[in-house]
From TrEMBL:
Keyword Transmembrane helix: no
Keywords associated with the record: 2Fe-2S, Iron, Iron-sulfur, Metal-binding, Oxidoreductase
Domain 2Fe-2S ferredoxin-type: 1-76
Any GO molecular function: metal ion binding
Matches recorded under InterPro entries: 2Fe-2S-bd (IPR002888), 2Fe-2S-bd_dom_sf (IPR036884), 2Fe-2S_ferredoxin-like_sf (IPR036010), 2Fe-2S_ferredoxin-type (IPR001041), 2Fe2S_fd_BS (IPR006058), Beta-grasp_dom_sf (IPR012675), Diverse_Oxidoreductases (IPR051452)
Cross-referenced PROSITE patterns: 2FE2S_FER_1, 2FE2S_FER_2
One Pfam family matching this protein: Fer2
Entry protein name: (2Fe-2S)-binding protein
PANTHER family: BLR6218 PROTEIN, OXIDOREDUCTASE WITH IRON-SULFUR SUBUNIT
Keyword Cell membrane attributed: no
């Protein structure tokens, strides 16, 4: 049995220890916000936060996660009110949405380590792939999220924008 914490809840998986963390989260814990993209760690759709670092969950086994603290997109903010989520919504960055949970988790980890990243640092840290090509708006939105997190800016979302963004993406 493998034990670690997911979204501040202790979990114990009775799965093969070689099971990729991605599949334990999606199949055993029903946390489907973490997406399967490529299975090779290249696209970043499966990115989660493990002990403060952005990690591609398809490349980590549950045995390797033993004793760690894992945060998925579902555990990042109760009402999608993390500064990165707010900035992506306000900047109208999200298109199809499939890559967004992994991007949000990568950006949140970046901002925890660097409260004032340059555009180059953002581009270097967000290596997630997006087929919709949101990169210019994405860098701008993450910069805005950093300002919000530092208390230099506030985002007030229209309730209709927030409701539209909360519609579940197709798995």
């Amino acid at each position: 049995m493998t034990r670690f914490t997911v979204n501040n809840q202790p979990v114990e998986y009775k799965l093969d220890p070689r099971t990729p963390l991605l599949w334990a989260l999606r199949d055993a814990s029903n946390l489907t916000g973490t997406k399967y993209g490529c299975g090779t760690g290249d696209c970043g759709a499966c990115t989660v936060d493990i002990d403060g670092a952005a990690v591609r969950s398809c490349q980590m086994t549950i045995a390797q996660a033993e004793g760690t603290f894992v945060t998925t997109i579902e555990g990042l903010a109760q009402e999608s009110n993390h500064p990165v989520q707010q900035a992506l919504i306000a900047g109208n960055v999200v298109q199809c949405g499939y890559c967004i949970p992994g991007i949000v988790m990568s950006a949140a980890a970046l901002l925890r380590k660097n409260r004032n990243p340059s555009d180059e640092e953002i581009a270097g840290a967000i290596t997630n792939l997006c087929r919709c090509g949101i990169y210019p708006r994405l860098v701008e939105a993450i910069g805005r999220a950093a300002r919000v997190a530092r208390g230099e800016e506030e985002i007030v979302l229209d309730r209709r924008e927030t409701a539209a963004s909360e519609e579940p993406a197709q798995d």
